[in-house]
Amino acid sequence: MDSSSVFRRSFKKPFPSAVRGEGVYIWDSEGNKYLDFSGSAAVNFIGHAVPEISAAMTEQAKQLEFVHTSQFTTPIAEQYANELLDFAGKNFARGAVYFTSGGSEAIETALKLARQYQVEVGEPRRHQILSRTQSYHGSTLGALAVSGNRRRREVYLPMVREFAHIGIPYCYRCNYDCKDGCRNCGQEYAAELDQAIKASDGQAAAFIFEPVSGATLGAVTPPPGYLQSIAEICQGNKVLLIADEVMTGMGRTGKNFAVDHWDISPDILVTAKGLSS
Length: 277
What we know:
- This protein is an alpha/beta fold and 277 residues long.
- The protein folds into 2 domains: 68 residues, Aspartate Aminotransferase, domain 1; 203 residues, Type I PLP-dependent aspartate aminotransferase-like (Major domain) (Aspartate Aminotransferase, domain 2), CATH 3.40.640.
- The protein has 8 helices and 8 strands, in the order E-E-E-H-H-H-H-E-H-H-E-H-E-H-E-E.
- The strands form 2 sheets. It has a 5-stranded parallel β-sheet, with helices on both faces. It has a 3-stranded antiparallel β-sheet with strand order 1-2-3, with no helix packed on it.
- Helix 8 links the parallel strand 6 and strand 7.
- Helix 7 packs parallel to helix 8.
- The longest helix is centred in the middle third of the chain and has 18 residues.
- The radius of gyration is 21 Å and the shape is globular.
- It starts with 17 loop residues before the first strand and ends in a 6-residue tail after the last strand.
């Protein structure tokens, strides 16, 4: 291994040094060319080294690089928030955008917002965040707590707050009958959410889910009627519905957001990655 002052993601392999990008390609310091087929973990939706982007960033930096949001807003933030709400569609017409520095922080903020909402509406007992097995919501401790991937969680379990994880529809290892095009199994998995909410004894604040499973299950789409059912269950039980669209948002599934495929309206929608590309 070469000596490096950077704490790398793995100590078992060398990393090529990326020095340039253009469109869908990356070049390393040895002149090797790589096809960035995954968009660098689903981040670079519009490619590398887009001249209009660097020009806009430079122009903004010349005017103002940072102000604290406890004291100021900025015209560019207001403009971008309006554009995002328009992009999200009619269900978010009266919504508001909270900017963070990345996906994991956005998930953390959504969890805290769900809790604060419940307190503000007179439901202080509601604090539990329900989620699904084999899900992934981020690398920070709060996001890890609601993630269901066992291997990524196991070493940190003494440090995280544990809430209920329900089953996730996955035909390859389904616990129910899939013979009717998976509609039945989707309803069975939705019923698990209803049972978990009831088992929480009025303490469930929110349910977080990935509309299309991402990093730890592999682009698995939900069965017919499943998402509509979980939305109805949450609404009927005063539980907020949080859609994690960090990976699937900003057009990645062919619609602006993945929830648009099933015409459901989450209370909180989290997006990142392609948001800033």
